[in-house]
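Two folds, back to back.
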Amino acid sequence: MYSVLITGASRGIGKAICGKFIREGYRVIAPARAQLDLSVPASIDNFIRENKDVPVDAIVNCAGINPIANIEDIEDSDFDKTMQVNVKAPLKLIQGFVGGMKSRGYGRIVNIGSIWGVVSKEGRTSYSVSKNGIHGISNTLAVELGKNNILVNSVCPGFTNTELTLQNISGIEAAELYKQIPLGRFAEPSEIAELVFFLCSDKNTYITGQKIVIDGGFVTR
């Protein structure tokens, strides 16, 4: 039985990813914040130390934060926290568990990016920097770890029907956004989960180092 570590599995896309892996028979490690607080480096170190003997065959770094502010209003503390949660924490988790993958000659890593790491919009400086950074990690590790049969990719979702999206976007705003998406709708979390699962599964034997956009064609407009 393969094991997968998933962060951000309590809601939205992460919850759908977690459910997909469970249904496919994976042993899922989905720590709650009390077990793993990505904003606290010591918490990450403790989690890695407590789970150092657990074989992790796949990692899905899904957790992230998105503080919105125009350039003059970005607080150092918000920028630093975004880099910690969205970039440093995923890198630290990979560092903590990649040794086991290398020793077994098998591993799959998917870092969840965003369309805002491909295109951008006002107020997204911190978030876009972090999502471009996570793809830089994917690119480099794909080169570094390929010889160990460890495949590393970024998945960049567009607008998705999650609780957070529905809280932040009114029905009128959603209707306007539908017009900008060639498929005319938001993604369902399950659709993102299917792609992530494929990239982490044995069916993926040759895709690595890619920034895969799943957005219904939004960024092509």
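---
second:
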Amino acid sequence: MATRIYLTGRLAIEHAGTLILDEAAFPGRQGRLVFAYLAADTHRTVPRAELTEVLWGDSPPREADTTLSAVLSRLRGLLRRIPCGADIAGQNGAIALRLPADTWLDLEGAANAIDEAEGAGRRQDHAAAWSHANIAAVIARRPFLPSEDAPWIERQRQSLSSMLIRSLRCLSAVGAETGDLVSAVQYAIQIVDLDPLRESAYQQLMKLHLRAGDAAEALRVFATCRERLRDELGASPSPEIAQLHLSILRGDVN
């Protein structure tokens, strides 16, 4: 069985279905940060200066290079003691995490799953779309290094948030197309909560409420959209969603 690496939730490595390395086993905060940074982009080598910035930002201590070498050494030793075949290699001032070809990484797993889900949705393969979107959503909901804060961490969190929204769109679409309007609405509400300034999310939610026969709730969704746009952006709803609102008031929608 392949090695599985989890960067979301708690850092962990599984091999052959068994947890072999939990977050607490990593060599301290610096070891966790370096491992997560290398694992999140295993397809490239990382300059030592980049890892120095990961650990200390733009204010590295005088002994930064020595400390980084010690962190890498401890990580290398840890990985070599476990039967997953992972290693940390360094050459010409650059570092890379080497993993077996069949290693599964949760971040890549989520990205692949949402691509598969959207492709299945275009083919009208509702079962496959539902399955893949659920996989992506489960991973994307997990926090990424929740106790840390840095630009690269925030970029990864934004990527996960984007994947979660895409997966929820797929799940909502499957619900709508298979007649499960309750689920479709629930997923659409989650999208609005995650992306409260995107008008298209409100518009889709309004349409789902209308399909479910709840025009009053569709009107409430529009009111929420209008209020948030006004308060956060000083803007008014677009003509498209305003026209939908007017059509509901006039009773011109089914």
